[in-house]
Fold this protein.
Amino acid sequence: MTSGKVLHGTYNGVQVLRYVGDIRYTLSLSLDSYIKGLLSNRELRGFVADLTATDAIDSTNLGILARLARSMQRSQLPKVTLISNRPAINEVLEGMGFDRVFCIVPESESELEKLREIPVTLSDDGAMMRLLLESHLALMEMNEHNRKMFRDVVEAVEKELHQDGERADADDKRAG
């Protein structure tokens, strides 16, 4: 597997993301922040996520896609289109109910040109844990199967965040 990266371009107001290689949580904070910026664009007409060059994608990044779909729905914009011709990726998408929330197609109708890599920024552990939680909660909201699948992950992350909060409070008391 190749290390992952996400490319971005715009085509007639439609934001295009191309996921390349092994897409893991280390990309998630940068990607989430970048997508939030794209969602604030008043000219936004749609989103396409091209997974045809994706070797693997973890649940955190799938959760970011689920949150993107929810944001588009709330804004009354078209469903996010996922382009995927990878049987293993398609099996994961369908198993998690993405076929009910996204428009999944095997190929793009137009050439995706002039894409540039989304810069990866350094992240802090607290922000990463909060994003892990938000992403997995978004997956759980999609259906009962996902709720059962990610319940333990969410509980573990919530416990970790709670413990981190207690440690921070204790540190503040010692410093104060």
Summary: The helical segments are 28-39, 59-74, 87-95, 98-101, 125-142, 144-175. The beta strands are 5-11, 14-23, 46-57, 81-83, 103-105, 116-117.
